[in-house]
Amino acid sequence: MTQTHTSSLRGRRLRAASLLAVGAALLAGSGPAAAQSLLASRGLGYVNPPVDARARGLGGAGLALPGGGLSLVNPAAIAALPAPAITVSFQPDFYDATLPGGESDGSTARFPLLHAVFPFGQRWTFSAGYGSFVDQTWAVERLDTLRLGEREVEFTDRFISRGGVTRLRAGAAYSVTERFSVAAAADLYTGSVRDTLSRRFAPGDSLLSRRVDLAPASYGTAFTYRGLGAAAGVRWVPTDALNLAAAVALGGTLEARPAEGDSVSVGRDYPLPLTFDVGASGRVAPRALVVLNAQWAGWSTADDELAATGGARDSWTVAGGVEMGSATPGQRTFPVRVGARYARLPFRWGPASEGNDFPDERALTAGLGARLAGGAAQVDLAAERGWRGGDAAALDESYWRLGLSLTLLGR
Amino acid sequence: MRRRTSLGRALAAALLLSLPAVACTDEPPTVTGVDLFPGTLPSTFQVILPADSFAQRIGTFAGYSGPADVGYQLVAGGFDDGLTANTLVQLAGFPATISYTQGGTSRTDTLFTYGRGTLLARLDTLASTSAGPVELQLWEVGQEWHPASVSWRFAVDTVGGQVPWTRPGVSRGALLARATLTAGARAQGDSVLFALDSLAVQRIAAADFPGLLVTAAGTGARVQLGGFQLRTGAHPETASPDTVVAVNVSAAQATFVYDPDQPTSGGAFWEAGGIRSARTLFRVDLPDSLPVCASGVCTLVPLREVALNEVSLLLRPVPVPGGFQPVGPVATALRRVSEPELGRRAPLGQPVNDVLGFDASGQPAFAGSRFVPGDSVLAISFTGFAAGRAASDSTSFTFALLSDPGTLFGSPGALSFGPAWFAPDPRLRIVYTLSARPSLP
């Protein structure tokens, strides 16, 4: 028995190592991500939860799903996983924005989640993962003319911000009983942003003999982000039909520092929010699961630091959804999901002195899942239609967000 | 279950089809028309420096090229009260035998006679000018001459000795033909045709024929030619009377002689180009700092702290006397000179003209490379070079102002016969932008 257990453990370790290698390769190949909202230009950026497509299809409510989950919100959710696992999520966004004096649309794509889990023994489960936190990729440009002697020259000023902050998490969950687990995790907030301000001029005289083109001017600065945080979570299954979960994440100080060799730019510190998440799921029928989530994040601690760009407020989110499908473990199933979400976003579009209010976000979601190979592989798809803005938020944005998650279990 | 599977496949297909749309672009969400710029916007300024604050002329040199270095020939008769030029041509490649087919049989004959012919010369209308109709005359050259050393005064001018023309400007033999550009040199078609009788063709084909001379009758025309070809027919003696074999012969040597030599201003003007490839060497000192003004208050900012948008040498053309005024584009260039103390023997570095773009064939278009003398100001920008020097704090350097079609156009044949002259008061135009660094929110 002991020998069998050791062999099984070694096999699991090997599979876990393979899964981590696959994950690292995916992460290395993901490349720079672009933003999914013009709100990436406000405050510390657009806050993007590190959830998988299953949770996304349920409105984002993935905290207390039966059988656990691989979203990077509740570190205790991994305790329910029976085997080493890895998940990767891909998320394209398409948006249209209207704001005073301008319109914008675009499409972007990113990898918001990569998470690997490795059970150790009967009670412990360890995890390492990468998840999106805030996105600061956006751009603004304006056209104007200036007079240089006898010449009138058209030019375009363009500011581009590329980068953001991600969260690297290492955690451990302990199953006190089969129905109750606790977990703790350490977070490393890391990232960078490169800001480029450029001025480009229209070509000169069309007559080549008289033509003189003005070279563009470009200025760039780069900042790196570092911060530490911690998280804790619990998962409780009081009955077979009910799952409850809660998580808290405490962020320290996010330090933004100019790149090495830049003696001119000035760094800044931003307090990271304390975040509470609570969730529940209940199987109201043999093939129907109802999930609910709520989150509160104390972003107002950064209000003073972000006052120049509109300030920050505490944000909260409520989300819920229904998953229709068989609950039998190991069975080949194709669950269907619908959900909705409402969120009060933390960063204002413009200064309060100009009458700008904080924006909200509303979304309707739907999704499909496929559990294949006896549950060893899981593919989840999600589609989300959402709106951001508000009566006095200045910005009105509608978007489509798609999600694709692939999860492999090392059975 | 089958229905759900189909729905899942459809959604998966839609997602996968959407991936290329988002994966092939790295364009961030962009707002336009809204003032969301963090910090201070860039400011752009312009200063124009007079000659005495940035330029010091070192000298003007010429004599680096002659008719043998260009791909065209010139004919002029007292043009602009001064210039006379005659073109010399040697044809080669007349056949020793004629092959033809008669009665289904191929034959070769060494005895044949030439019929009438036409000497065709390609005319460069953009580089030619005249006040009205122009008569060109085709002569037999009156004495032997050496194509590489021939000049207005000498038929041969080599280390081995000099042989002067019996008549300056090429000794003339028999007049072979005339051609008239009835509409003037610029409005003429792209070729000049000299009609030759059979005796003239027979004479031209002779082994001892010294060459052809093209002159202009009358005054007021300057005609630029390039490429000669004789088109005629040969009748083999053994062939039937109506058998004529076409014979085309091209020029083996073509050059021209002219008088007077390219003029020099004696330092009164800045000179560039011409048949003798004049160049003017001058030293440039970029300013160490530039003024930045806001709300009526100006401060000086070090040169290396601004972004240079344009650094251009502004030159004011002046007329060139003696028939040497350029009539077509002049490819004007600035090239680095690292050893100006060597004067006329100072080696030239690479051109520093900015590249403005590329034409349809992929060739770069250089600033100043198509200067037309009728323009009131020539601006040669060298912003890229100046920005590099400013970044390295080495803001003093020496340039040669010259005509450089070989580098700028890839063909030395575009070297204008007439040089460009510029008033000795060049100016330096600097356009620059100052911006605050982007800052964190």
Residue share in helices of chain B?
under 10%
- DSSP strand content of chain A: over 45%
Counting helices, strands and paired strands, the structural category of chain B is mainly beta
Q: Beta-strand level of the residues of chain B, as a percent range?
A: 35-45%
Can you tell me the residue ranges of chain A where pLDDT is under 50 for at least 5 consecutive residues? 1-35
Concise account of the structure shown:
The complex is a heterodimer of chains A (411) and B (441). Chain A is mainly β and 411 residues long. Helices cover 8% and strands 56% of the residues of chain A.
Overview of the molecule:
- The complex is a heterodimer of chains A (411) and B (441).
- Chain A is mainly beta and 411 residues long.
- Chain A has helices at 2-28, 53-57, and strands at 46-47, 85-99, 102-120, 124-135, 138-148, 151-177, 180-201, 217-239, 242-251, 253-258, 268-271, 274-285, 288-297, 315-324, 336-344, 360-372, 377-389, 396-409.
- In chain A, strands 2-3-4-6-7-8-9-12-13-14-15-16-17-18 form a 14-stranded antiparallel barrel.
- In chain A, β8 (217-239) and β9 (242-251) form a beta hairpin.
- The longest helix of chain A has 27 residues, at 2-28.
- Chain A starts with a helix and ends with a strand.
- With 441 residues, chain B is mainly β.
- In chain B, β4 and β5 form a beta hairpin.
- At the A-B interface, β2, β3, β5, β6 and β7 of A face α1, β1, β2, β22 and α3 of B.
- β5 (138-148) of chain A pairs parallel with β1 (30-32) of chain B, so a sheet runs across the interface.
Comma- or semicolon-separated keywords:
heterodimer, A: 411 residues, mainly beta, elongated, B: 441 residues, ten-stranded antiparallel sheet, four-stranded antiparallel sheet, disordered N terminus
Secondary-structure map:
The complex is a heterodimer of chains A (411) and B (441).
Chain A: H1 2-28, E1 46-47, H2 53-57, E2 85-99, E3 102-120, E4 124-135, E5 138-148, E6 151-177, E7 180-201, E8 217-239, E9 242-251, E10 253-258, E11 268-271, E12 274-285, E13 288-297, E14 315-324, E15 336-344, E16 360-372, E17 377-389, E18 396-409
Antiparallel strand pairs in A: 1-4, 2-3, 2-18, 3-4, 4-6, 5-6, 6-7, 7-8, 8-9, 8-10, 9-12, 10-11, 12-13, 13-14, 14-15, 15-16, 16-17, 17-18
Chain B: H1 2-23, E1 30-32, E2 43-49, E3 55-61, E4 73-79, E5 83-92, E6 98-102, E7 105-109, E8 112-123, E9 129-130, E10 134-141, E11 154-158, E12 161-164, E13 172-181, E14 191-196, H2 198-204, E15 212-217, E16 221-236, E17 245-259, E18 270-273, E19 279-285, E20 289-294, E21 297-302, E22 307-315, E23 317-318, E24 332-336, E25 355-358, E26 364-366, E27 378-381, H3 383-391, E28 396-403, H4 405-408, E29 419-422, E30 427-434
